[in-house]
Fold each of these.
Amino acid sequence: MSDTAPAPPLLSIADFLADPVEAADFPALTLRWRNNRSAREIGLDGLSDDQWLKHFGRFHALPGNLPQPLALRYHGHQFQHYNPDIGDGRGFLFAQVRDEAGRLIDLGTKGSGQTPYSRQGDGRLTLKGAMREILATEMLEALGVPTSRTFSVIETHEALQRGDEPSPTRSAVLVRQSHGHIRFGSFQRLAALEDAPAMHRLIDYALAHYGDWANAPATMEPAARLLNVVVERMARLSASYMVAGFVHGVLNTDNMNISGESFDYGPWRFAPGWIGSFTAAYFDHNGLYAFGRQPQAIYWNCGQLAVALRLVSESAPLVAALERFGDLFLNALAAQFCWRLGVRQIDAVADRAFIQAAEAYLIAQKDQPGSIDAFFHAHRGGHDLDGLAAQGTEGAALAALLADRAMPRDNWFADNPPETMLIDEVESLWSAIDTRDDWQPLTDKVKLIRAMGAQLSAQSPSPAVVP
C-alpha cells in the first residue's frame, strides 16, 4: 500500500461509530498462522515475517491506512435480552484495504487488548480460541458458508486465567478478514440514542461500501434498500449453516454483520448428526441457538435491525423486507443443499420435496457421529443410489428423488474419506499444540479442508458466497 492511498472509508463516520484505542503491549510475539492465500488477495503477501509481526502483533499502522485502531460502539440483544453496555471489548478495526476486485475489506482483531467497552474483561484471547477460529473459518469457507477468514494468529506469551478451560493458558492475538465490520448492534445503538442524522449517515456508508445492492433498486428508500439485501444475505447464511451442519452458538445481534458473513467463533460446534436440539454453548440452557433454531434466531435478529431502522423509515417497507425471509431461506436451502451434494436443482416445488426427504433421511441417521458429512460425501452427484435405497424407508424415498438429479461425481470424493470437524478432532489438534507445541497436525488438517473446498467449488461457486 502506498503512503498516498485514499483515506479509509470508515473515517468518514468514525466520529459517532468508534473510538480510537491503543493495542496491548504484549511481552513477546511468535507468528503461528499467516494466511498467505488471503494476503495475496489484498496485496499484503509481500510482507516479511518481521513486518507481519510489526503490523499484526504490534499494530503499527499500514501505510496510508487508519492512523490508529478504532473500537466500534454498538448495543445488542444477547440471548434476546437488550444490552446497551457492549462494544468492541477485546478487538478493534485495524485497517481497511481493497481486494483484487476492488471490494472493501476490513481487518479486525480479537484479543488485542482492553478498550472502553471491555467491562471486566482482560481484552485477551486464548491460543486455543485462536486455533479454534482457524478451524471454524477454514471449514466453513470450504463448505460454502459466507464467513470471515482468519488472517493472522500471533502467540503473545501471556498466561491467561479462564474459568472454562485449564488455566493458566496460552494467549494470542488474532486478525480476521471480512467484507464488513458493521454489526446490527451499531444501528441498534443509534436507534436507542434517537440519533437520526447519524443513522442516515451509517445507512449511506453501508450502501456505498458493502457489497452488491443490485437486488434492491436505487429508487427504494435507503433503509428499506439496506434491509432487503441484508435479509437476503442472512437467509443465505442461515441455509448455509444448516447444510454445513454448523452451530455458531452465540447468534446475538452484536454478532450479526450486514455483509451476511458469519464471524466471532467462540463455542461453535459441528453437529454430530442432524439433531435440531444440538447446542454449542454450555450456557445456552434453553437451546435458543440450537442447530435447528438458527434460522429462526437469525430472522429474529433481522427483525431487531428493522426496529432500529424504523427511526428513519416507515414501517411498511421494512415489514415487506422481513416477510421475504421465509421463501428466501427455503430457496437458499435448496440451492446450498444441491450444491454441496453436487446434484441438479429442478424447480421450487420439487426442490423443497427433495429437501424434506433429505432431512427425513438425515434425522433417521442422526445417532451416527459424522452422518451429515458422510451423507454428502458418499452420495455426491447422486452416487450409490442402491446403497442409499437400502438404508430404510427414508433412504429409499430419497434415492428415488435423487435419480433425476444425478451428475458426474468428482474423483476427489471417490478417492478420499469425508472431512469432518467434530469436537474430538478439534480437541486432539489442540492437544498436539498444547502438550508438544506441534502445529503440523493443524497444518495438515487445513490442507485437507482446502482440498475439499477446491473440489466443492470446482463445479460451481457456492450460492452462499458473499458477492
Amino acid sequence: MNQLELGQIIAIRDLEFDGNSVRVSIGIPRQEPGGTDYVCPYEIFGPLTKKAFYAMGIDAIQALHLAMKTIDAELDVCAERKTGRLTWLGGQDLGFPSWKIEQ
C-alpha cells in the first residue's frame, strides 16, 4: 500500500459549500514498511478541490495529529475556502487543530 492510499478510513467530516459537500477523510495511521515512522493518509474531496496526501510522525498519534493540522492548512487555501462560503455546522471554524499561533 502506498502512502497516498487511504486504506481503512477512521474519520470523515463533511463540510458545506453552496449546498454541496466537501468531504475530509482520514485513513488509519500505519507504520512505514521497513521503517519506524508512521504515515497518516487523508483526502479532501469537494466540487473544486480534490487532494490526497499524508502526514508522517514518529508514532501513530503524532502522524494523526499532524494530518489533522495539515488538513486545516490545506482547507485554508482550497478554492472553496477562498470564496468565503466553506462552512462546518454553519460556521467558519472548520473544527481542525491549526498551525496558527494564538495571540
Amino acid sequence: MVGVPKYDEAAIALAAQRLTRGERTAFAAACAERLWPLVERYAATIALPSDSLRGLREALEAAWAAAGGHADRLALETAKAVAEELIPSEDDDNWVFESGYAQNGIAAIAYAIDTRLRDGVQEAVWAGRQVYEAADYVAQQRLDTELLYTPELEEELSNTPVAQAAVRSILEDLAMANTEEAQVIRQRIISSSHGFASLFP
C-alpha cells in the first residue's frame, strides 16, 4: 500500500456495497474477530462470568456461520440480544480502561449479526468503525487530548501506529471478504488477532 492509510468511511461503504450479503457479513465478523482478544482481556479484568463470555463467543460464531450461509433468524436475533446486553456503559460502576475495548468489540459482534439480518451495508461499515474507534481510543490516551480537538490533533491521532494498523486491518478484511470463503477468513483472523491486540496497552 502506497502512502499513509487513512480511515475513509465513505470508501469502506462503497467497497462493502459491492460485496454479497455473505461477504459483507464475513467482513463484519472479521472486524469483530480482530477485537476478540481485547474482549477477552476485558472479561479477565472485570472477572466477567464465564457463561457471559461464552455467550459472546457463541454470538460471534453465529455471525461466522451466517457469513457461510447457515443463518437461522431467531438464533441470530437471540445472539444479537446477548451481545447488546453485555456492551459496557460508561455509567457502569465497574468501568475500567478495558471497558472501552469491550464497547467496540462487543458492538462489532452485534453489527456483524445485524449485517446478515438486515443485509445491510451500513451495519458492516459500523462493524469496521469499531476497529478504528478502538484504536482511536488508545491513541487518545497516549496523546494530550486535553487540548482543543482540532484537525491537526485528529491528523496526529490518525497517524499513530495503532490507528494505522486498524485502517490496514479493515482494508485487508474487505479485500479478503471479496476473495475468500468465510471459514478461511475466520482462521486467518484468529491466527493474527493476538498480534493486532498486542498493539493495545
